[in-house]
Amino acid sequence: MKVLVINCGSSSIKYQLFDMPQKELLAKGLVEKVGEGKSILTHQHKGREFRSEVPVSNHEEGMKLIMKTLTDKETGAISDISRIDAVGHRVVHGGENFSGSVKITKDVLETIEEYADLAPLHNPPNLAGIMAISSILPDVVQAAAFDTAFHQTIPQKAYMYAIPRDLYEKFGIRRYGFHGTSHRFVARRAVTLMGKAKKETNVITCHLGNGCSITAVKNGKSVDTSMGLTPLEGLVMGTRSGDIDPAIIFYLAERQGMSTRDINTILNKKSGLLGVSGVSNDMRNVLEEASKGNDKAELAIEIFCYRIKKYIGAYTAVLGHVDAVAFTGGIGENSALIREKVLDGLECLGIRLDTNRNCDDSKAERLISSRDSKVDVFVIPTDEEGRIAYDTHKIASGKGEAG
Ligand code: ADP
């Protein structure tokens, strides 16, 4: 079965075509700058990369370009778009309605639309991607994998904010959590690597990419996570502040006359690694500047790692005992230095890194803790697209909800 996985952002479309169930990747690519005039398509197939500039004014045009590329004589992986059996979409916000991936129906579409208020940057492009596929491939089965779904098991004491209850009842204001597909995959891989039963194993998963979040997984279920109503809460990220005192917002608005729109831009786009270092939102650049003695870049790294360390301590208390800590995402998978700084001094929690294993820069999933560490520490490359393909295949084969 050929399964196409789609991840639509506001101005981009990422895609991967799999042959399932063997999860063979047939082709993948990215359309960037959708609606911005000069769009860029990058496409990979059989180890070759193709790049072209084609104006793409909306998601439907982008999707048509992807279909053309997938069926082209030179770049294509399939002879005709009718060979695509199912399409799986990453959808950011599913609210309280979905605890697993589902087949997209009219009701599901309505719910995704409903949650657009809470995820205005994400759900509308996700919907646009679904609508584009509906128009190009009207008979194909489409499935949605929600970033929020894995976190639906979080107990009320962890998802409710201590604010008037009617704000939850009227507006749905609570912690939802994101990156769920990644946390779910990484926690399960860690359990498999330990050879333990999911039902008796606790894992702390650290997804450190452009967006960063950390999750406490108890017996296979998410019981707390750092992102909240939106992906702004929690860890320090490339351009997002993570946790701050909410009074900072009133101070900036009331005392400094800033608009809520400007404050939103500051906290979401100008903070985090970028805001503190003044250098970049990209960890590689910040690390490089710090190695040249740039104090601000060094401080950005210190704040980034300290925040993660604090959450590991908190989630150890939440879980009672921790079997493993797992790192994933561009930073978590690739930076030995960040992992070392995060875990430095956590011997008190039974966590000891093996320096050689930590510095081994193979891309494979691996154990990086020392033999005498009570807690296993893993690097596990995430595979969100592979999970979405798996769920979509399951749904399209008529085996019901997945996840
Ligand atoms: P996204 O969240 O958009 O999927 P990624 O998971 O690819 O992003 O993570 C991007 C982040 O990973 C960037 O900050 C980038 O600098 C960082 N990164 C990638 N490779 C390395 C590396 N070798 N060392 C440190 N950071 C890295």
Task: Throw out a few tags for this protein.
403 residues; Nucleotidyltransferase, domain 5; 14 strands; 2 domains; binds adenosine-5'-diphosphate
Please, could you describe this protein's structure?
This protein is an alpha/beta fold. Helix content is 38%, strand content 20%. It has 2 domains: 2-146, Nucleotidyltransferase, domain 5 (2-Layer Sandwich), CATH 3.30.420.40; 197-384, 2-Layer Sandwich (Nucleotidyltransferase, domain 5), CATH 3.30.420.40. The chain has 15 helices and 14 strands. β4 and β5 form a beta hairpin. α1 (59-71) packs across α3 (123-136), α10 crosses α11 (295-319) and α11 crosses α13. The chain is globular. The structure holds adenosine-5'-diphosphate. Adenosine-5'-diphosphate binds at residues 209-211, 238, 282-284, 287, 329-331, 334-335. The site of adenosine-5'-diphosphate has 13 residues, from α10 and α12.
How many H/I helical runs? 15
Mean pLDDT: 96
In CATH terms, what is the fold-level topology of the largest domain? Nucleotidyltransferase, domain 5
Q: Into which percent range does the helicity of residues fall?
A: 25-40%
Count of beta strands: 14
Instruction: Give every kind of bound small molecule, once each.
Output: adenosine-5'-diphosphate
Order of helices and strands: EEEEEHEEHHEHHHEEEHHHHHEHHHEEH
> Could you say which structural class the secondary elements and strand pairing correspond to?
alpha/beta
What would you say the CATH architecture of the largest domain is?
Answer: 2-Layer Sandwich
Per CATH, the class of the largest domain reads Alpha Beta
Radius of gyration: 21 Å
The main sheet orders its strands as 5-4-3-2-1-6-8-7
Q: What is the count of structural domains?
A: 2
